[in-house]
Design brief:
alpha+beta; 10 helices; 9 strands; 26% strand; elongated
Amino acid sequence: MADFPPVPLTLEGSSVLHQFFGFDWKAWRSCTDGERAKIADEFTAALKKLDRAAADTPVRSALYSQLGHKGDLILIHFRDSFEALNQVELDLAQTEMHGFLVQKYSYVSVVELGLYESSRKTYEAASQKGFAAHSTEWDAEIAASLKRGADAMAPRLFPAVPDAKYLCFYPMDRKRGEQVNWYTVPFAERQRMMHEHGMIGRRYGDQVKQIITGSIGFDDWEWGVDLFADDPVVFKKLIYEMRFDEVSAVYALFGQFFVGVRLQMDRLNDWLSGKL
C-alpha cells in the first residue's frame, strides 16, 4: 500500500442538519391562550411539511424533546442538498414560533460510508491494470468502483430518520497531535483498527441504528454520530465498550453528547403544555 493514496475511499449521501434549540418559556407564558394556540398550530403545520415530502415517502425530519441543560428541542433534517437544508432553516424562521426558539448549537454534515475494507482492493485492482495513481485511467477506475458501491448502498446513503424512541448525537475527531496522529498511521493499520471497531457496532445492530455523517470542511468536528434506539441504556453500553477499542482508546476525541426523546410533530401542543 506504500504507493497508494493514504486516504480511504468514502461514499456520500444525504445532507444532514442538526438543530438544537432552547425554548423561551417565560415569553411563551406571557402570551394569551389564543396567541399560543395560533402560534403552535402554525408551527405544527410547518413541521409536518418538513416531516415527509409526501404521505408515502420516508421521514426526513424528526423532532426530539432534549434532556439536560443544553437545550429543549432537537430537530434533525435529511435532505438531498445543502440548499434544501438552508431552505429548511429559512422556512422555520418564517414562523412566529421561531421567536421563542434560541438556537444553542447546530451541526452540518453528509451521510458517509467509509470504505476501509474495499479501498485497498479498489486501489490494488487499478494498480494491477497498470494505472498510475491519480492518472486519468486511475480516476476513472476509482469513480466506476464508487458508482457501483453507491448504487448498492443507496438505502444506507439516503436513509429515513429511524423510528426509534431515543436519540444520542455526538461529534468526534481522530487525534492528530505530535505524539498520536491518526493520519500518519499506515493504511493497513488503520484498516485493521477500523475493522475491529466496526465489529463492536455490528454486535449491537439489533438494538441500535447508527448513522455516521462526515463533516470535514463543513463543521468544527470531523464526524457526527447519530444513535437511535428504543432503550437509552444501550447507548451507554455501546459507547463504553467502544472506549476499550484501540481506535477509540488511542485515537478518538469526542465532543458534547446530546440526548433526546422522540416527539411526534402532532404532539407539540402536549409538549408546550408540559406533557410528553
